[in-house]
Specification:
By secondary structure, the protein is an alpha/beta fold. Helices cover 50% and strands 12% of the residues. Strand 4, helix 5 and strand 5 (164-171) form a beta-alpha-beta unit. Helix 16 (423-446) crosses helix 17.
C-alpha cells in the first residue's frame, strides 16, 4: 500500500479497513475518497460504509463506526495522520487529518522533485496520433491550429502516463485538390482569371511569384503543383514550430500511390470477400462491420473515392506496429468514423484500437464579431496572424481550455490583456510570483542581491525550499496552506484522468485551481520572514511544489511557465 501521506495512501487505508471488515474480501466497486463540498465536513470523505452495508447485513452508520475503529488504528496512534474521524449523514466516513499528515505529505512532494506526475500506466501502448493534416493548399488557419494544440497536448498527456507516442501529419498531396491548386497558381503566374473552383487567397499570388522565380513553366501543372505543395508544407511546418508543435513524421499520400499500397489493401479486401460490384462501381461491405451503409471504393468511371487511400494509410499505420491509432479530425468528419472502423476490421485489424476525436469549431471574436474562415475563398484568419496578435501561449490556452467537443470563441480583447481576468495570464503570473518569492528568499538568505543573478537566483531559491524538514515546524498550518497541499496532491490523478479521457481542458481547469489556491495562500500567509519555528521553511517548500506543479501543468499544455512577468 502507498504511504499514507498521499491521497493514494489514504484511499489504500480505507480499502484495507473495508477488507478487514469482510475478512479480506475486496469491496466492489472500490470505496471512493473525495474532498467533501464543505471544509467543515472533513478533509476527505468515503462512501465505504454504504457499500459494505449490504454484504455485512448492517446499517451504514453502524458499519461506518466499525470502519472508524479500523482507520483510527491504521492512521492514528504512531502514524499521527488523524486529528479525528466523524460519521455523518447516511454513513459517510469523514477524515480530519492532522498537521503532521500535511507536513509529511508536503515533504513527500518536495522529495519527488520534478517527478510530480503519475506512475507509468500498467498497460503501455505504442500510439500514433495523427493531427492537423490540413490540405497543403493554403496557410494553416485557426481551425487547424485548434487541432494542432489539442493533438499535441494529447500526445504530451499520453507520454506523461507512460505510453510510447508519436505525432504524424498526413499530407494530402494527391487528388483533385492538388490539381485545382496547381491551376490556381498557374493562372496567377500568367495573369489570368482563376478557374471557378480555384483558390483565391493572396497567398496564391505570392506562391506564383516564388515558383516563377524558380524558373518553373506555368503550363507545367505537375511541376507547379509539386512546388506549390512543397512551399506550403514548409510554411505549415514553420507555423507549427512557432506554435510549439514538432511532428515526428510527415507522411505523404502520394507515397501510398507510388508504392501501390492502395492496390495491396484492395486486394486484401477482395480476398476476404468484403467487396462487390454494383452499377459499375466497386463497393466495400462496411455494413457487415457496423456501418449504416456500404461505401464506394472505386467509382464507375474508375476513379477511387477518398476512402480508398485512407484505408491504405491506416493499414500502413498498423503495419508499422502501432497498437492504437488516434485521429484528430475536423468538425465535418462525423460520418467518417464508422466507415473507417469497418475498413480496419475488414482488413483484419482491431477496430477498438482506432479512435477518432472530432474537433468542434473555433471562432475568432473581434469587437463582438466572428471571423469566417475558408482557404478557398481566401477569407480566413491564419494561425500565424493569431500568434502574432496574442502569442502562442494564449492561443493554445484558449483552444485547449474547453472540451474538443465544444465550440470555442477566442475573444482577442481578453486574450491580449495582461491582467488576472485573462486565464492564461492568471496561471502564468502565479508561477512568476512564486519564482519571485523564491528569488527573494535566496537574496535574503544569502545577504546579497541574488535577484540580479537570474537563473542562478532561481536555482538558489529552489534549493533552499527543497531543504524543508517536515518535522521542523511546530506552528499549526493555516487553512489556506492545507487547501493548497490538497490541491497539489491531486496532480497525478488529474494527469491520469486527462490522458485517459483525451481531455487536456481538465489540466487548464486544474492549473487555474492551483493558481487560485496559491493566490489565496499568499494573501493569507507571509512567506519570507514568517515568524515561528520552521514556518518560513515549510511555506517556501509549499511555494516550490506549487511552482513545479504549475510548470508541469502548463508543460502538458505546451505553454511556457515564465520566471518573470
Amino acid at each position: 500500500m502507498p504511504p499514507t501521506d498521499s491521497i493514494a495512501g489514504l484511499k489504500g487505508a480505507v480499502e484495507a479497513a473495508a477488507r478487514a471488515l469482510r475478512d479480506g474480501e475486496p469491496t466492489e466497486p472500490a470505496p471512493t475518497l473525495d474532498r467533501p463540498p464543505k471544509p467543515d465536513l472533513g478533509d476527505y470523505s468515503s462512501n465505504a460504509a454504504m457499500l459494505l452495508a449490504g454484504p455485512l447485513g448492517d446499517n451504514p452508520r453502524a458499519v461506518a463506526e466499525r470502519l472508524r475503529g479500523e482507520l483510527e488504528g491504521s492512521l492514528g496512534g504512531d502514524a499521527g495522520s488523524l486529528d479525528r474521524i466523524e460519521v455523518a449523514g447516511p454513513g459517510f466516513v469523514n477524515l480530519y487529518l492532522s498537521d503532521t499528515w500535511y507536513r509529511r505529505a508536503l515533504g513527500a512532494l518536495v522529495a519527488a522533485g520534478e517527478d510530480l506526475g503519475p506512475a507509468p500506466t500498467a498497460a503501455p501502448e505504442r500510439i500514433l496520433v495523427e493531427f492537423v493534416s490540413a490540405n497543403p493548399t493554403g496557410p494553416l488557419h485557426v481551425g487547424g491550429g485548434r487541432g494542432a494544440a489539442y493533438g499535441d497536448a494529447v500526445v504530451r498527456l499520453l507520454a506523461a502516463v507512460g505510453h510510447e507516442v508519436e505525432r504524424e501529419y498526413y499530407i494530402n498531396d494527391a487528388g483533385s485538390q492538388v490539381t485545382h491548386f496547381a491551376r490556381s497558381i498557374s493562372a496567377r503566374m500568367k495573369g489570368e482569371d482563376l478557374p471557378p473552383d480555384g483558390y483565391r487567397g493572396e497567398y496564391v499570388v505570392e506562391l506564383g511569384k516564388a515558383i516563377a522565380a524558380a524558373g518553373i513553366d506555368p503550363d507545367d501543372l505537375t511541376a507547379v503543383g509539386e512546388r506549390g505543395i512543397a512551399l506550403m508544407i514548409d510554411q505549415v511546418r514553420e507555423t507549427l514550430r512557432r506554435f510549439g508543435v514538432v511532428m515526428d513524421t510527415w507522411f505523404s499520400e502520394r507515397s501510398l500511390v507510388d508504392r501501390g499500397d492502395a492496390e495491396a489493401a484492395l486486394a486484401k479486401l477482395d480476398a476476404g470477400g468484403h467487396t462487390y460490384r454494383h452499377e459499375g462501381a466497386l463497393w466495400l461491405r462496411t455494413t457487415e462491420f457496423g456501418d449504416d451503409k456500404d461505401r464506394v471504393l472505386i467509382r464507375s468511371d474508375g476513379e477511387p473515392t477518398y476512402l480508398m487511400p485512407d484505408i491504405a494509410y491506416h493499414w500502413d499505420k498498423l503495419e508499422r506496429g502501432f497498437g492504437r491509432l488516434i485521429d484528430v479530425l475536423g468538425a465535418d468528419h462525423h460520418g467518417y468514423v464508422a466507415r473507417l472502423r469497418a475498413s480496419i476490421e475488414a482488413l483484419g485489424g482491431d477496430p477498438d484500437g482506432f479512435e477518432a476525436l472530432i474537433m468542434s469549431l473555433v471562432h475568432i471574436v473581434e469587437d463582438g464579431q466572428r471571423a469566417q474562415m475558408s482557404k478557398r475563398s481566401g477569407d480566413f484568419v491564419s494561425l500565424d496572424d493569431l500568434i502574432d496578435d496574442i502569442g502562442a501561449d494564449a492561443a493554445r490556452w484558449f483552444m485547449l481550455s474547453r472540451s474538443h467537443e465544444t465550440t470555442v470563441d477566442i475573444d482577442l480583447a481578453l486574450a491580449r490583456k495582461q491582467a488576472s481576468e485573462n486565464p492564461v495570464y492568471y496561471v502564468q503570473y502565479a508561477h512568476a510570483r512564486i519564482a519571485s518569492i523564491l528569488r527573494k528568499a535566496a537574496e535574503v538568505g544569502g545577504g546579497g542581491d541574488a535577484g540580479d543573478a537570474g537563473t542562478g537566483a532561481a536555482a538558489a531559491g529552489d534549493a533552499g525550499a527543497a531543504a524543508f524538514d517536515p518535522d521542523g515546524r511546530s506552528e499549526p498550518l493555516e487553512p489556506s496552506e492545507k487547501a493548497l497541499v490538497k490541491r497539489l496532491l491531486e496532480f497525478p490523478h488529474e494527469v491520469r484522468e486527462a490522458a485517459a479521457r483525451r481531455a487536456p481542458h481538465r489540466i487548464c481547469a486544474y492549473s487555474t485551481a492551483v493558481a487560485a489556491d496559491f493566490h489565496a495562500f499568499y494573501r493569507d500567509c507571509q512567506v519570507v520572514g514568517a515568524e515561528g519555528e520552521g514556518v518560513e521553511a515549510s511555506r517556501l517548500a509549499l511555494c516550490l511544489v506549487a511552482k513545479r506543479t504549475i510548470a508541469g501543468s502548463l508543460g502538458l499544455l505546451g505553454i511556457s511557465a515564465p520566471e518573470r512577468m
